[in-house]
Hints:
Elements (H helix, E strand, L loop, with lengths): L20 H4 L12 H11 L11 E7 L17 H4 L4 E3 L6 E3 L3 H4 L5 E7 L5 H4 L2 H10 L26 H8 L11 E4 L22 E2 L11 E4 L2 E4 L40 H5 L1 H14 L2 H21 L18 H7 L3 H14 L4 E6 L8 H26 L6 E6 L3 E2 L24 E2 L3 E7 L7 E2 L16 H11 L7 E3 L5 E3 L11
Parallel strand pairs: 1-9, 1-10, 4-14, 5-6, 5-9
Antiparallel strand pairs: 2-3, 4-13, 7-8, 10-13, 11-12, 15-16
Helix pairs in contact: 12-13
Amino acid sequence: MSHHSPHRLGCCQADHPALGRRELLQVGSLSLLGTGLADLLRLEAQAAEPIRTPAKAKSVVFIYQSGGPSQHETFDPKPEAPDMIRGEYGVTQTKLAGINFCEYLPKLAARNDKFSIVRTMHHLAHPQFRNEHLSCMYLLHTGSTEMPAGDTNASIAQPREGRIEWPSIGSMIAFAAPPEPHVGLPAGIELPRVNQMTYPGRGAGLLGPKFERWKVDLAPVCKSPDAAGSCPNCFSHDDPIDPARAAGKDPKAWWDNSSCRDASFRLPDLGVGGVSLPQIENRTELLARFDQLRRSLDNADRVGRLEAWDEYRKQAMKLLVTSRPGKQNPFDLTQEPDNIRDQYGREEWGQGFLVARRLIEAGVRMVQINLRGWDTHQNAFRDLKGKLLPSIDHCLSGFLDDLAARGLLDETLVVMCGEMGRTPRISPITVGGKNASGEVFTPGRHHWGDVFPCFVAGGGIRTGQVIGQTDAHAGLPISDAFTPSDLAATIFHLLGIDSHAEFQDSRGRPYRIFQGEPIRPLL
């Protein structure tokens, strides 16, 4: 690992506080400069204008399978391999001769002309990093091939002074391909469960707080131990195999899940605290409060804190509409007809895809949808067959069909992958070990960063392909392999960001946006 890489600088979570009452008091303070919201949007659009090339895609939806899905049980099954490699499932034929998917993805297999699969994604980082969740999360979400110098798999999840941190793909898009000035929403939005799904690599890093994505919690709080899946089709990997002990109110149940089985999304909570929307919109009153707050800060700390708060105030101005139901609110799913909601699936993942469609229609550049539960160490074949695969097969198929029917698929790039794959060989975590419910572990697959699949649709790509070939056990690439840097470069290229475009950090030092090369067979 290089310790003198030219592309990282520190970013501390403490520099990016959650939006709360005090921050929202800053809304309206732009009148200090005689500047209105329309002027703000225009100035932001002109602040940094990287070189642009003709774009095939207007937006990207990044579907993140947190935990790392198995290549064997999704898009790269090996039916001829030995039992402990092949697994318990059969295959289903796609429209491509000789290309099979897992048997529990029949809807996606029937639609494979609408997307392509890259089977040979892999990490180049040292083995101590490429097989661990936190490190691989950082590598995937930043599009990097190296960890920040001085970090371990444990430390990367914690704030650290002086860290040289590369911006997330979403933050880079916010800088290099911002929304049109009239769009009243941030460039990047992450949903539907963000506070319960924390991971490294999601920050703006070198770019600074102006280019943070907006993290929006829409899903109800889940109280499940080791929660996984798409509520209400959710589960815990520690759920007992014994049906008599299934989660619920039964006296023999291992835990009571009846309090968190409502998958209905709520509208975003801006953390207003005791400040009403009319007060937020009353610029005169808020200006007076802002002046009072400014006088209360000492000089030494004023500049940095007000600069950070200023960015959150701008975002709050853009998102005021999202606290109100109605046709203008892309988060309000009651505006959608029942047949569309059924097509997507009335569960957490389907609703997330539906919100994503509404956000890209509103002009958002990147929406990230977090899908939890793909870390299938134990009870893997029970949970994949019964929960994970049916949910993604239905919800993603409905999403693709709706985008295509609305003429949005050609201009919307859809990318889905996890931070890693799973081991070729099936085994328990520990021989004879027991899970949280007290039952002996059933076999599964474990962390594997040497190869993993990536789903890509829309955005002007060449569809109906399977790119890359793995060995007989789906453990290593035996053809061209691609890194997260190449995936990021592909996204940037399709959004029209020039391969020579640069950005500068807070000290004025230049950095190239592209670290990898676009995946040419997709273009």
